[in-house]
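Kindly go through the following sequence and its C-alpha cells. Advise at your convenience whether the C-alpha cells fit the sequence:

___
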Amino acid sequence: MRMRIGIVCPYSLDAPGGVQIHVLDLAQRLIDRGHDVRVLAPADPATTVPSFVDSTGKSVAVHYNGSVARLSFGPVTARKVRSWLEAGEFDVVHIHEPLSPSLSVLALAQADVPVVGTFHTATDHSRAMRAAYPIVRGFLERISARIAVSEEARRTVVEHIGGDAVIVPNGVETGVFRAAAADPQWQGTPERPTAVFLGRTDEARKGFGVLLEAMPALVDAVPGIRILVAGRGDMSRAREVQETYPDTLELLGEISEEEKARLLSSADVYIAPQTGGESFGIVLVEGMSAGAVVVASDLSAFRRVLDEGRAGELFTTGDPAALAAAVARVLADPARAAQLRDHADRWSRRFDWDVVTERVLEVYGLAVGEVAAP
C-alpha cells in the first residue's frame, strides 16, 4: 500500500552525521518504492537539501552524548512542526532520537497519527537523557512502535525509559561501496600498504588521538605504511605528528561521499579507534563492503557489527599499542586478511538498504495496524 510518511530528523543538515544520512537515505529508498515521503529537519537556508526535505531553519549547538548536536526547539519551531504535520496528512510519522530536545519531541507531542520512534544513541550515563526524560516521559507513550539501531541502543531504551524496541540496523548503500573503483593515489602496495581513518579529528570519542599515539609503533612494525586521514576538525596535533612522520601521515581534509567510497576501496585497512558512545558503526559496514580489512576497537557495538571479530580485527579500546599490533597482524598475514575480507563481504549484506527498508516498512505496518503482531 502506498503510504504518506513524515520523517523527522532532530539534527541539522548543515553538517550531516550518521543520523542525518540515515534519514535521507531511508526517505529516498521509500520514495523509490512509491511512497509519498517528506522529511522535516533543521537546516540553514544556505544549505542545499533534497527536494523532499522541509527545513525549519537554523539550529543551535547543544552538547549531547559526548558530541555537539545542532538542534532546533521552542515555540516558533513548534508552530512550524504543527503546520508541517497538518499539511502532510501523513499515515505514519517516523521520529528519530525521541529523547533529544528537538523537532522529534515536538512532532511526537502534536502528531495525531501513529508514530514510530527510532533510537540511535547508546550510553550508560547521559545527563542530557536524564534531564530530557521527565519532560518527554508523558509523550513517549504515544509512540506506537519503537526501533533501536543496535542491541546497545535497545539496552539504552530498556534501562533509561523502560519498555523494549525491535532492532533494525542502520542501512548502508553497500552496492555503492562494492562498485567503487580503487584510486591509484590511495591504493596500497605490498611495500607501501595504506590504512585509512575517517571522521572528526577533534572529537575525543572518535579516537583519532589513539591513532596518533600509535604512530611510533605502527611505523616500527610496518615501516612503509601510509596513514590516510579524511574528515573535519582541528588538525593542529596531527600536523605536529606529521612533521615527525612526513612519509607516513597524509591529511586529506574533508572528502565527498564518492571520494570516501573510492578511498575505502583503495585501502588495505580501515582503522576505527573510537573510544565510546557508539551504538552502531555505519562506516565499518562501508569499509567491509568496499573490501578494506576493518581493524576496530572492541566496543560492544563494533563487536556486533563485525560479527564478534569474524568480519574484522578487534583491539583493546583506547590502547595505541594494541591498535598498532592489530594493524601489523593483518598486514603481515595475507591469508588472515583474505579470510576477514571474505566473511565481511557476506556479513555486510544484511545491512544493505534493500533489507533494512523492508524491515522498517514492516514496523510501519505494525504501527498503523496493517500487520498482525507476532
Notes: The two ends are 20 Å apart (CA to CA).
